Amino acid sequence: MSKELTSRAEDYSQWYNELVVKAALADHSAVRGCMVIKPYGYALWENMRDQLDKMFKETGHVNAYFPLFVPKSLFEAEEKNAEGFAKECAVVTHYRLIADPENKGKLIVDPAAKLEEELIIRPTSEAIIWNTYKGWIQSYRDLPLLINQWANVVRWEMRTRLFLRTAEFLWQEGHTAHATKEEAVEETVKMLNVYASFVEEYMAVPVIKGVKTASERFAGAEDTYCIEALMQDGKALQAGTSHFLGQNFAKAFDVKFSDKNNKLEYVWATSWGVSTRLIGALIMAHSDDQGLVMPPKIAPLQVVIVPIYKGEEGKAIVDAKAKIIIEELKALGIRVKYDDNDNARPGWKFAEYELKGVPVRIALGQRDIDNNVVELARRDTKEKKSVSIDGLAVYVKALLEEIQQYIFNKALDFRTENTRKADTWDDFVKLLDEKAGFISAHWDGTPETEEKIKEQTKATIRCIPLDNEMEDGVCILSGKPSKQRVLFARAY
Amino acid sequence: MSKELTSRAEDYSQWYNELVVKAALADHSAVRGCMVIKPYGYALWENMRDQLDKMFKETGHVNAYFPLFVPKSLFEAEEKNAEGFAKECAVVTHYRLIADPENKGKLIVDPAAKLEEELIIRPTSEAIIWNTYKGWIQSYRDLPLLINQWANVVRWEMRTRLFLRTAEFLWQEGHTAHATKEEAVEETVKMLNVYASFVEEYMAVPVIKGVKTASERFAGAEDTYCIEALMQDGKALQAGTSHFLGQNFAKAFDVKFSDKNNKLEYVWATSWGVSTRLIGALIMAHSDDQGLVMPPKIAPLQVVIVPIYKGEEGKAIVDAKAKIIIEELKALGIRVKYDDNDNARPGWKFAEYELKGVPVRIALGQRDIDNNVVELARRDTKEKKSVSIDGLAVYVKALLEEIQQYIFNKALDFRTENTRKADTWDDFVKLLDEKAGFISAHWDGTPETEEKIKEQTKATIRCIPLDNEMEDGVCILSGKPSKQRVLFARAY
């Protein structure tokens, strides 16, 4: 397969699709809309998951596991939630296959094995979890419940794209239960902050923290908080959401607790999730026409060493030196691979690891060893230089931190350059078409205007930023008064 | 809820069911046959998973993720495999719900959203994975493929029990592809050994490694290797299996590779898996009438410290000393909890942690502190003694190792005592009914005899042990000649 990618300028969407497959992150599968996450993509997901999991545990959460299936009667209990997800539900109706009497060796669904009640494959787990919490919560002493689940979910999407929108995806979903509204809101914001820290510090993707408008809320939530990132094509991507669910699920599933005064109250809820979609954000925020650019902190491989030699004897010399370097790198906790596969030439390997976004490439040749140096190449800036073998591991460790920061700053600069104010409708439309990016503009606060803007421009309100300044203005479409700007963009 | 358990002698099965729920490992759910794995149970599973994952990676494997769904046409491609799982398949037939026109607020399956081809929820992933491997394997250079997946699977079981047999369960499934039969067989045995090491060294459960008879093989395998453990009621439990799949799946999915001589050959396969069922084995192998007994290496909590004090001032003294002890324990990598919850009395806590099987309990009182000691209780032997606070952490670390070994030895002794030879049919039946356990006996090697023995006694051939001695004898049922004994038991 050719390593050559369509350039971003030529066709950004095509570039993305090719990159995911050629860099061996994921593959299409035989199942409509479902992806195969390949080992390199899964190793990235493991690093992301492990870091997030650590952050969840540090904030007092524990993991548990709830059923994949939601009986229809439970699914429909919280009406708004059910309505929101109904049109994308995969439904199990039977539990057995039998031999096809008309086709030897083939199977058919056994009509006699029809379920009395259909089972929905979880598109999200509020229903099954709150039905379970009912049995776990009696008193204020049982609260808060701070539980997270790592799981697969299914949403039957019609137009799918690897990582960004797939019928099945992997995610985590936190589901917490609290005695007071204040505590639940605090939890919602706390987890939004955990997401923001993770995405900025580990994925090197700057995000805007904000609140969704009513029409963009999670189905069944009182408030949806989100982090929004900007991709290189100027489109926004929602990278994570944290929902304050009020008492909606507690009421739907009759989950009450007796407070300190022995009074029965409904429990307050939050839920929050991020998914393999984050990998799409990572790719689109940093990568270039040569391939992926992985942030060192979560890169499956941080350093690759490519030996350059002639003959067996030459290889033995390079191998011996590489062994020492690798030990030193590993001692500093650096993830390193030595690629001495003799089926491929160094040039091919260089292109391969560039495509895969390995942050640092070290070429180690016989002449280099004579001079006690290596040739070191940064994936992010493509800078190459000769570096002394003495102290190389310490140098590389510092360089990985520098790269992490560089990638973040670059993405931040891009976002800063591509966040603009629009004060008139004409400016708004012109900016959207000519520059894309985030547009900060006044809106009259009504869902009607929001809908009209969406219909006319495909731009949506990404969020009302949490750190928004109050400012008098007039709505770009309706001309009605407004107290603050909101953030618009076309989005994934 | 009462902490009191039914005793093992009274009703072993009831004891198990109560223990799983009361120790908060798992709970029944609203979905038939599906369990909720509660935080304590999930923490145990995480420890098991992380250790296994490490062992898989150390033996050269990488993780990936394949779709939950298997289109029916792929599912039926390997006929024996399909036939073996057909009767327990959950089937997705529709992808949308709509409002029920006759019941406001309720939903029905949208008859217009029927899938053209039904999707099977994976009961195991050979079909979807080998269909994918077809696109990944062209040449001998692409081999071996050493991939593992951590996932949920669904097998529609009619009689379910928490952990032991549930409709949905969590597991890992390794799926490897090789250029030669020898290499595939070697991989099959290697992973069996990994499982045996894990179960013995971490779960402290001794296992017999063996090969299944033809009728007990995995559907679609040429050979199934297994590890078999003995539970305290004398029944066997299959704790893990590793399958040599020959070229069956390569042929079903047309997966060929060109070898070094450019000759096209079918690829050789293995698959191997262990599941949350292992938790059932862990419980039944070690626990007693007071509750769980957790092997320290994978115990979610290794040490619990219960403070005993009077008044605020007393608490401050105990807290301060506990803080120092906890830091010392943590510095040695010991998982410790300080339970200073003032809603429960020490005695209640003692019973609670006994029920949960925490290996070491430390009671820390004001008088103890005056004497520079703690009261330390082992969960396994229930021994209590006074131990000096000086050097406590080092003492506890060694003790945890001792407990791990003690639990294993106890289970091994139990198995040794409960593995017996039977040379006649009468002896065999008598041993089964009076003593249970493993019975080593001659069998004529035919599936017919195996089936008759099963029908008459409910005992099955658990395996032909790998380290079996050859020995002439006659089949306990048919009287026909036999070259070796096989291992019988009634099993879970």
Question: TL;DR?
Answer:
Two copies of one chain form a homodimer. Chain A has 492 residues and is of the alpha+beta class. Chain A has helices spanning 12-22, 39-58, 72-75, 79-85, 126-136, 181-201, 248-252, 277-286, 311-331, 346-355, 366-370, 392-417, 425-434, 447-457; strands spanning 26-28, 35-37, 62-63, 69-71, 91-94, 97-99, 107-109, 114-121, 145-154, 168-178, 208-211, 223-230, 236-246, 256-258, 264-266, 268-275, 303-308, 336-338, 360-365, 373-378, 384-388, 419-421, 438-442, 460-465, 470-474, 481-489.
Describe this entry's structure for a reader.
- The structure is a homodimer of 492-residue chains.
- The first copy, chain A, is of the alpha+beta class and 492 residues long.
- Chain A has 3 domains: 12-92 and 121-286, BirA Bifunctional Protein, domain 2 (2-Layer Sandwich), CATH 3.30.930; 303-406, Rossmann fold (3-Layer(aba) Sandwich); 419-489, C-terminal domain of ProRS (Translation Initiation Factor IF3).
- The first copy, chain A, is built from 14 helices and 26 strands.
- In chain A, strands 3, 9, 10, 11, 12, 13, 16, 22, 23, 24, 25 and 26 form a 12-stranded mixed beta sheet that branches. A 5-stranded mixed beta sheet of chain A has the order 18-17-19-20-21, with helices on both faces. In chain A, strands 4-8-5 form a 3-stranded antiparallel beta sheet.
- The first copy, chain A, is globular.
- The two termini of chain A are 28 Å apart.
